[in-house]
């Protein structure tokens, strides 16, 4: 029994799928204590969009720490925070014609979601929040209430109230328009649904199985929320910060959410940092009404500011879009060539392969790890193989990882065929 098994809680998860002790990492690669190198198609569940130990982000952090830059300020003013707010406005918001107030609620994504939900209820005076099937928004009680996964929800141990789940696009099949269902519920006084405070949505449901909302669906959702005076919250925690190509995942749909939640790759370096962006007229907080001890994490402000250098032009966005086409083409070729029943879907550099044989994704993930590739699964039954490489990965490494996936799929498919024979 190793020290982790002896002392760490049974709640640990990813280590069971990737049983190695890692000691260092650079770019798209991780190395364990035995010197074994692994190509990373996991990226810390979307935390490491710019890869491991990116020098453009690491060096400003080192200089800041060596200069005795302040590390913790709660929500007192700091030079590091000042620089981040200014840089984010200059590089991200103003060029897109966007205007938002900033709230730093605490260190993680679920802190941002909790703050967004609380703010929406405060502003509107309503209680209900509409969420979508297969959504995942976090592990604290408010976030769990708008999460679809029954296993995660059951962990709360108490009833989760004041939410209404409706079908995400495609949940009921291609022929059923789920937004017609939502709008009918809002219009019909006999539906049992009161006008909610907000609708919260992921443009791509990452943990839910890489379920991709179309741009038309997102536009219509924005129109419906406006017509009924409902706030729209876009949870961009996992698929924002360039994961779909543009900095915000909703940009291609041409919509402006009322509230946006960001975390994961916001700091650019794996340091905890979360942000709620709200339309200025929604900022009705009283001082101290919502707070958190680690809402002033200055080292994360430093790395987040440095990461914004990737967004001063469209080079990274165009690179992600190019790589996206490569991944889509190769994944489709794999399942077709090997006659595997599966659905390939995604945007940017988040892609999923949902296998008809629901056990296959886990088997392929395990086979990939044995061949030196870290890749996770997603979906309610872990039936989706989920690709999440860093945005900065070079095409040679990207193709190498795709080669391993192809080899692993083939090995599992052949083993299944032999077992049937």
TrEMBL record:
Protein name from the UniProt record: Diaminobutyrate--2-oxoglutarate transaminase
Keyword line: Aminotransferase, Pyridoxal phosphate, Transferase
Record keyword RNA-binding present: no
SUPFAM superfamilies cross-referenced by the UniProt entry: PLP-dependent transferases
Residues spanning the signal sequence: none
Family: Belongs to the class-III pyridoxal-phosphate-dependent aminotransferase family.
Phosphoprotein in keyword set: no
GO molecular function: diaminobutyrate-2-oxoglutarate transaminase activity
Superkingdom assignment: Bacteria
Its EC number(s): 2.6.1.76
Cofactor: pyridoxal 5'-phosphate
Pathway the protein contributes to: Amine and polyamine biosynthesis; ectoine biosynthesis; L-ectoine from L-aspartate 4-semialdehyde: step 1/3
Matching CDD domains: OAT_like
